[in-house]
Amino acid sequence: MDDIQKNDKRTENFYSDAANYWSKVPATEDGMLGGFGFISNTDIEGSELFLRSAFKLKNPPRKEYALDCGSGIGRISKHLLTKHFKKVDLVEQNSEFLEAAKTYLAGRTKRVGEFFPIGLQNFCPEVGKYDVIWCQWVLGHLQDNDFIKFFSHCQAGLKENGVVIVKENITSSENVEVDTQDSSVTRPLKELQRLFDLAGFSSVKEQKQSRLPRGLYPVYMFILRPRKIIRNSVSNVLQ
Q1: I want to staple 25 with a disulfide (CB 3.0 to 4.6 A). Which of 1, 31, 125, 144 is the partner?
Q2: Which CATH number is 92's domain given?
Q3: Do β-strands 112-116 and 130-136 pair in parallel, antiparallel, or remain unpaired?
């Protein structure tokens, strides 16, 4: 087997192993948060303040349409996004989670748009549709090449003045840490920033989530705006 085939196989296993892991996770808030369901309120409160700050930017995003990436059962859509946007789409590779979301989001259905049962590595947002694309605790399930491609697609999916908001675990070390149980990676801050840059985004605001229990990864939030992609840099990474 040549190197290209080996890389393709590793990529296939990376995504299939993650899908297999999440297929065994209960479709509950506690399941979505890996057994840390008790942090949900703290998480949402921090996200609420951060999202409000995005609306105070110069040339802020509008409050028409948002996309919840790696939505699970729709925890963030229910408690945050549908409170601020007229419509929210959900994209999630696990179709059973999306089915559960339809019940979980009862009472918010007028603000729920489309459900996309697909992994982010294969998802292309509709051109010019979204004011805010929200990515939380899901980017660790993308390999670097797919991370960059996904964000490049997000550029096209944003409306004028649209932003991508990212909320992710960050390693305390300078190293990428691999979780073989759920087939994910946790990246250091500089590595995330490098990938944002290669995908053509600039961070206009960064903030650490406060009041999380000790022993968990630090969690950072980013407001990202697209800029002109340096095509050669992207091409080199994607090869």
Answers
A1: 31
A2: 3.40.50.150
A3: unpaired
Pair type for strands 158-169 and 184-186? unpaired
For the chain, the domain total comes to 1
And the tokens for 102? 């339809």
Q: What's this model's pTM, rounded to 2 decimal places?
A: 0.93
Q: Residue 238, annotated ligand binder?
A: no
Per-residue pLDDT reduced to its tens digit, 31-55: 999 999 999 999 999 999 999 999 9
Can you say whether residue 28 is alpha, beta or left, with left for phi > 0 and alpha for psi between -120 and 50 degrees? beta
pLDDT tens string 4-27: 555 778 899 999 999 999 999 999
pLDDT, tens only, 66-101: 999 999 999 999 999 999 999 999 999 999 999 999
Tell me the CA distances in angstroms from 44 to 48, 75, 81, 131, 142, one per residue in order. 6, 9, 10, 19, 23
Structural domain span for residue 8 = 3-238
Per-residue tokens: 100: 């559960």
120 is in an annotated binding site: yes
- CA 223 from chain centre, in angstroms, equals 12
Does residue 77 contact residue 51 with C-beta atoms inside 8 Å?
no
Judge whether 136 is annotated as a binding position. Answer: yes
Task: Copy the structure tokens of residue 223.
Answer: 């407001």
Residue 139 in marked binding region:
no
187 is in an annotated binding site: no
